[in-house]
Amino acid sequence: MRIVRPRRIFEFGTFLGYSTSLFLANSDPGCDVASIDLGDIASELAEAASYSDAELRSDDRKNDDHLRLTQSRLGPLYLRDLDETDRRRLTLLH
Length: 94
Ligand SMILES: C[S@@+](CC[C@H](N)C(=O)[O-])C[C@H]1O[C@@H](n2cnc3c(N)ncnc32)[C@H](O)[C@@H]1O
Description:
- By secondary structure, the protein is an alpha/beta fold.
- It has helices at about 20-25, 55-60, 60-75, 85-90, and strands at about 10, 30-35, 90-94.
- Strand 1, helix 1 (about 20-25) and strand 2 form a beta-alpha-beta unit.
- Bound molecules: S-adenosylmethionine (SAM).
């Protein structure tokens, strides 16, 4: 990021916003950052809450559903305490 110095970043898969927060922290103040995730789909994935660790490690579909459910329930935790400047250049999409 520091070599390329992008003017725009688009991320697929916000999850809890950790990589999004790194994009904001390491890009120029003029760089716009957008990130997309699936929004509130917790009700469709309730079953994913009961998957075991072994299932999550061995079944990529179950692992995906677990990530989607976690994102839907917790939202972008790492983006809660952004300063005003970073908040203005971030767009979160669902
Ligand atoms: C491995 S996580 C992303 C990790 C994240 N960038 C981080 O810093 O922790 C994958 C994310 O992609 C999201 N996702 C899966 N399918 C998607 C789709 N079709 N469109 C947008 N987001 C999707 C999931 O909800 C999940 O939050």
